[in-house]
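LAB NOTEBOOK - FOLDING QUEUE
OPERATOR: T.R.
BATCH SIZE: 2
PURPOSE: Compare the predicted structure-token outputs for two unrelated chains run back to back under identical settings.
PRIORITY: normal
REVIEWER: second-year student, initials M.K.

ITEM 1
FIELD SEQUENCE / FIELD STRUCTURE:
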Amino acid sequence: MLFMKKIGLLLVGTFLLSGCWDLNENERMFYVQGMGIDYKDGEYEVFIQIISFSNVAKTETISQDNIQSEVNSFKGKTVSEAFDNLYNAIGEKLYWGHFSFLILKDAAMKEDRLNSVIDALTRFPDTRYLTWIYSTDEPLSEFLTVTPLLKRSITLTRLADPQNSYEKESFIEPINVRRLLIDLNEPGHEVNIPYVRLKEGWQTQKEPDKSIETAGVGIITPHTFKGYIKGEKANGLKWLSNETVQSRITTNTDGNQYISITVKNLKTTITPIVKGNDVKFDINIALTASLSSFTGNISTKDIEKAVIKQVKKEVKDTYNAGLEKETDIYRLSEVIYRQKVNFWRENQKNGKIDLSEDSIQRINVVVQQIESGRKSYKESIQ
């Protein structure tokens, strides 16, 4: 009888243990964090970044002797074929639950290829529509091997975690796959994707280092790529986004004194004004200005005038740069669609309305508050 009880306990333990046999072991999987896609010579080239699981959860400095990631590229007539070639080249399972960002080269966004890229990406059950998306014209492999400054965990790169830096300097709003698909389906069917590039010049005790910076936008439609707006020409975008947390401008006053201002509490509204078959737009921007740096004696009025002048200039310059690319950079067609849908129906072409340099009628900038951060605007050293 005792022998039978022992056999029964052994069988029960066996059944319990068998329930774990089909689980994936962490050390038997590779973790995909980033991917870049290009198209050349009739083939897609897919760059894959796999990261070391031992460092995924760490935020402190990583030993410089540790390899945090490995990158390789795979080609195919379709994106799926490139993935198949990837699977043939590795000896473990790939886990896509940590997949954070996708970088696209120009050719991968032309001639309806974007649709193929997104379809292939979202077919994996572990991928999310919250994956960040970027554009670039620089070598993809270098973006995937860059580590954060001071060798912090590779999961904290600007590509994988863009919101952290955006809160400090709101230049170009990050965009994910979900937002991309929504905006491409709305009038006028164009989206501004952050343009990224490599920044050199960081020096260490061992060798020079690189970082990644956002430097403008790439403009795409469901069917093609329309080009980049880079550097200062893209500055106006931050003043037309209510997602802007804070941003900085440096400009000069009427007395030719240079000042640096931190802009916060931004609130922007766009009002379409329809007259017959013509439409104009009033852009109203309210903000708080915080004085960061200045020379000489300066008044509140000087600061206000300088901020208004510079914000208006940047809004207009970016709008004109968009017209040169034949793009509706501020999505004014969607504003008409939302607020004056009958006019939009009668005048739209492929979801867009015709725009010209005169389509923006007024840019009204109101500085609601000026903060000095100290008791006066006088210089510290007299």
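ITEM 2
FIELD SEQUENCE / FIELD STRUCTURE:
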Amino acid sequence: MRFVTYTEGLGILSQDQRSVIPVSDILPRTAGMSMPQLIAALTADDMATLANTAASSNCIPIDQVKLLSPIPRPIHDVMCVGVNYLEHLQEANRVSTGGKFKEKPARSIYFSKRATEIIGPEAEIISHPDLDPELDYEVELAVIIGKTCRDVKPEDAEEVIFGYSVFNDLSSRILQREHKQWFRGKSLDTYTAMGPCIVTKDELPFPLELDVIAFVNGEKRQHSNTRLMMNGVAGLIADLSAGTTLEPGDIIATGTPSGVAMGMDAPKWLKAGDTVTVEIPEIGKLTNYVK
């Protein structure tokens, strides 16, 4: 199933993805819930009910609703993974880190990304050129946690996943360099985008092999596959849950491949008027406009 948030509430997409079915029409007790609250509340029977009755329920044409990010306001900061693709590690080392990553890190590099609001499809990215003119894009797979968990073993990781989405980890590169860590340069307002939906884990075989692609003004900038992550989804969940409780609706951004503006000899930074689209074909496309 594909779960969405729209201005009137929570929904699931029809099989042809042309309509939205309000979840509360099928499960009235969920009326008024946020997506994290829904994820925490759903039972196996609820999921079966949604799957079995959606086709006969009230459908709203998708062009009559405004889709938001599936999780507009996360319950915690987004958990992010740095340099999780070898080619991105190499381009980061070459242009911006002064040799910080001369070889593959022994352990994954984690940081958090503050997002008081996660923007969704067709939303505007505020470029903040007064703070930093070097605005960059990063296509990533987002993993959405489905149950409260801690100390998850890699072989059990799929059990705690609710689903997956498409993520754009927008970044101000000067701020990122000047602060010697990544939180500040990645946490400006509108710098977190996710959508258009959450695809439940049963739709995508584990371990994942998903293309991740980014376009700017129609030009393909990034194209790789999640099978090339240095630490896969199972390893990331095991790491991040070790001694730390993860909760339903928590978001893990799994890292970006090469092809970001930072890695170019003549960087093509995002600027006002640009259109950026990040895509995972099995999940969907997320398009935003730079203001």
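REVIEWER COMMENT (ITEM 2): The mean pLDDT is 94.
FOLLOW-UP: none requested
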